[in-house]
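Task: sequence design from structure.
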């Protein structure tokens, strides 16, 4: 059975600390459904420094998406793992649910960069949506180039981020940062679902793209 690791964003750890975790739950719940329906084992993890705020995402999900817990607590979400605990586990795919605050935006080094680089270089499927692709920015490939260098990618656009910033207070400048890292950034209109596939890398522009990202990941996993 294939195994997928979902890396949760530590919502309240970013900005001024007032950002609610689990604000955009669809980025987690929709892919989770798709992965489970495909018959995969799914685990959730967050960096150690963000475990508390990451746990609040699961609490919000249990409250707002109870259908994920048919017949009791889904075993894949019974425990939020610290990312350091599972870095040595075998996973077939890695998915970053962006929410409002990906892990490294709190000013701390990423805990997943090593795992991400290893899986990417091994040809494993990597997915990220909305702010999630910011996790890719810290990763360096085996050839020494940034993971996104000369890759087709997308993520929350400047226009979308500006519109959302009034509520979230988070401005990552993700579009600009991806371009500066050498990525071929692609986007569509504000809040228009948009998914970009480049080899084993699957990225989604905004929360509405989460389902398409998950479907593209499943197609790759099924063909591998």
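Answer:
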């Amino acid at each position: 059975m294939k195994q997928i690791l979902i890396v949760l964003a530590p919502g309240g750890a970013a900005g001024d600390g007032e950002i609610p975790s689990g604000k955009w739950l669809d980025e987690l719940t929709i892919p989770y459904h798709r992965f489970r329906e495909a018959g995969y084992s799914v685990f959730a993890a967050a960096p150690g420094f963000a475990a508390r705020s990451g746990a609040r995402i699961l609490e919000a999900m249990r409250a707002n998406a109870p259908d994920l817990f048919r017949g009791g607590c889904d075993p894949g979400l019974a425990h939020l793992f610290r990312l350091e605990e599972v870095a040595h586990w075998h996973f077939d795919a890695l998915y970053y649910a962006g929410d409002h605050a990906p892990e490294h935006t709190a000013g701390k080094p990423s805990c997943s960069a090593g795992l991400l680089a290893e899986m990417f270089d091994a040809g494993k499927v990597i997915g990220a949506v909305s702010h999630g692709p910011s996790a890719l920015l810290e990763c360096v490939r085996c050839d020494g180039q940034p993971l996104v260098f000369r890759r087709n990618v997308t993520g929350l656009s400047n226009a979308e981020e500006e519109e959302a910033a009034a509520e979230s207070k988070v401005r990552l400048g993700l579009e600009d940062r991806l371009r500066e890292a050498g990525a071929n950034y692609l986007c569509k209109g504000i809040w228009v679902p948009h998914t970009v596939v480049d080899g084993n890398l699957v990225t989604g522009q905004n929360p509405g793209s989460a389902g398409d990202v998950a479907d593209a990941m499943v197609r790759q996993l099924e063909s591998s």
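Helices lie at 26-37, 51-64, 83-86, 113-121, 158-168, 174-180, 210-223.
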